[in-house]
Each structure stands twice: as C-alpha cells, then as structure tokens.
Amino acid sequence: MDLGLMFFYCLPLLPLIYILWRNLDQKRHQNCYILDYECYKPTNDRKLSTKFSGEVIRRNKHLGIHEYKFLLKAIVSSGIGEETYAPKMVFEGREASPTLEDGLLEMDEFFIDSIDKLFKRTNISPSEIDVLVVNISMMATLPSLSSRIINFYKMREDVKVYNLTGMGCSASLISINIVQSIFKSQKNVKALLVTSESLSLGWYTGNDRSMILANCLFRSGGCAVILTNKPSLKDKAMFKLKCLVRTHHGAKEESYNCCIQKEDEKGFIGFHLGKNLPKAATRAFVDNLKEIAPKILPLRELLRGKAVIDAIAANLSLSEYDVEPARMTLHRFGNTSASSLWYVLAYMEAKKRLKKGDKVFMISFGAGFKCNSCLWEVMRDLEGRNVWEEFIDSYPRKNLANPFLEKYGWIQDEDPDTMIREGHDGANNDDDYIEGNMEKNEDEDHEEN
C-alpha cells in the first residue's frame, strides 16, 4: 500500500488524533509544581526572650492578677520557646499605639528579605512572574500590599494579581488553589505566592482572656513561594500538587463565631478565640477528610469504605516522630499564621526526611471556619538548605519547658484578696504588687548570676 493510499485511509482519524494530542498537552500544562520557597527569619534583635515578654505584659495596665495567672498558664502550655520574633514597634514600647508605617515596615522587611532570596536562588527575575498572589489577613492597605510588591520589583504591566485579606491561618492553601485554577487555563506560567500576617496593627491591649491569648501565640513570620506549570521546569521542581480540598463551615453560627475579630466591652479591638474552637476545627476536619481521603488513600483502604475514614478522623495515631516538625516549629518560630505550614515543611526538609516519591499531606485551619488540605509529591531528594539550616542540629529539643514557669510561677500562689490596699482600685494595686515582685525576682536572678 503506497503512502498516498495510507494517508487517505487515516484521514478520518486525524481529528481524533488531534483531540487526543490536545487533551494530553493541556493536561501536561495543568500540573502545579513548587520550584522553591523561602521562609522568613527576622533579625536577632526581634527575638522575644522570657524577660522581655514579661516586660511587654506588664506594660498593659488593664491586666490584673487573674489575667496574669491566665497568661502564665497559657504561655507555659503553648509550646512556644524564647527565640520567636515580634515586630519592631513592640521593642519600642508602642504596641498599644501602632501606626500604619509600623505595619508597612513589618511587611517590607519580610518582602525584601524573603522574595529577594527566592529570586536569587531560583535565578528567576521579577519580570518573569505572570501571577502574583498575596495573603496578609490582618492588614488591608491602599494601594494593596500586592501593588506594593509590584512597585518595589517593577513587575510587568500584565501580571495577574490576587490580594487576599481576612482568610486567617488557612490562607496559604487558598492561595495555592487560586494558582492551581489559573494553571488549568494558561500554559507556561510562573506564579509568586506571598503569605504572612501583620501583627503590628492587630495587637490587643484589653483584658478579655479570649483575646489576650492571641498576643501569646502569634509571632512574626512569612513565606514566599514560586510555582509553575511549565513542563520544561519539571525536573527542577521540589513538589508536585496531587490534589487539594477546601471545606468551609461559615454557614454554621458556632463555627463562624469561634475565631473572629471584634471589639471587647471596653472598645478594644482584638482577635477572639472561642472555647468551641477545637470542636469547630474537628467538625471541619472530618468533613474535609471525608472528601480528600478517597483521593489519596490506597485502593485497598478505599475498599474497606467509610469505617476507615471515620477511624482516621477519630484517631490519627500520630507518633512523636510524626508531630515533631509541628512541635519544633511552634517552639522555634511560634504560630506565624498562614505561613506556619511552610516552616513545618522546611523542618522536614532540613532533617532530610523528604525523598523523591514521598507524599506530603498538608492541612490548615482558619477563621471562617475553614479546613483546607492538599497532597504533594516530592519530585527529588531535598537538601534542606532553608531557614532551619543554621540550627537544625540542635533539634529536636528534648526539653520544651518554658522559662516563664520558673521565673513567674509565684503568681499562681498569690491571693487577689490580700493585695487590696486603701486608696487603690484592684487593677492598679494588682499591677503595683506584681511589678514589685517581678523586680524583686529579677534582682535575685541578677545576684545569683
């Protein structure tokens, strides 16, 4: 059979061949890869020691002995260490009266440090970025923070921009989902994701226990990530996104109100963390797990059905080895909101735990109430050159005891009824009494040294 006749017989198949080729090519471009990421480590002069944290607490004149006892218990049980970071205005004693410039400075320091390092290490220039997604929950400016980044790095006029606020601790995976959606419709795209939280303008100066708790838990941090769907960059990628699921319980009043920014009875604005938060998180997690489990569990487990999913939700049976990255991240960096999961990932990488072919399950919770999760595949053995590199050998720490208990444990034994003197109201007297005892305690420490 000559070639002409063969072509004639194959001609009706050409449309089908074209459709198959187009679908395969489109699917190939829809993959979502992480090329690299950079977690932010502020300078050493922003570290919060036990002594300085005590000074910051004492500056809030609205706190009494009951609030001090509550804070002591919260800090000691939080798992947060002495090397976490806070914004500059805290060290200047202006947390009760921050300015817009304080918030912008906090963000600029993160942007310039982390984004610069990421561009340099990947050898990608700002002009190559096609999509920019920025999520900073507690700070909305005009122009937006995404515009601030575009102006600083002189990005292209046609860069697609998404600026997210109010999304809480789960915002990173929401941002990933936005990038993933764009990758499904556009080829050869490079995206920059910037995730952080502004503490400068969100400091609470009242005495509501559900709101002063946030001051104890949240710390400065952030992460910048470069993603792509370009097939030619596959071999340089660190991770490939396998699936992502988002669950939102905002329609449930109890879930909606368990994490919410509001004013207290005296008009002070803060972030309320309700007692029903664990319950709301559990419900959201179970619903999220029911959707993502069929996408990530092996076939043999899926055949066992709903009982397996319910069992996982009820008891994950995580070992100390499993929770070590999260515990150590909380100890070293504190809760950095939406960027926390990237510090956990960086810890696993620095410990050489991530090898080619491994699967990484990410899950995050946030105000709303939301639970978002995703599965990544490790594309190559990872070297661990990241924010943990300088001190990873000193982790995991066997002793995570917080020095607050040793230094301020005497507060637990004090009786508020014995502190009231004539001519003083309870709050002021509590403050005078506690300040005197703290100074006495510090003098004794100095003498021992």
Automatic annotation (TrEMBL):
CDD domains: CHS_like. Residues 26-304 form the FAE domain. Residues 307-377 form the Beta-ketoacyl-[acyl-carrier-protein] synthase III C-terminal domain. It catalyses: a very-long-chain acyl-CoA + malonyl-CoA + H(+) = a very-long-chain 3-oxoacyl-CoA + CO2 + CoA. Keywords: Acyltransferase, Membrane, Transferase, Transmembrane, Transmembrane helix. Residues 419-449 are annotated as: Disordered. The chain crosses the membrane at residues 6-24, 161-183. Its EC number is 2.3.1.-. Pathway: Lipid metabolism; fatty acid biosynthesis. SUPFAM superfamilies: Thiolase-like. PANTHER family: 3-KETOACYL-COA SYNTHASE. Belongs to the thiolase-like superfamily. Chalcone/stilbene synthases family. This is 3-ketoacyl-CoA synthase.
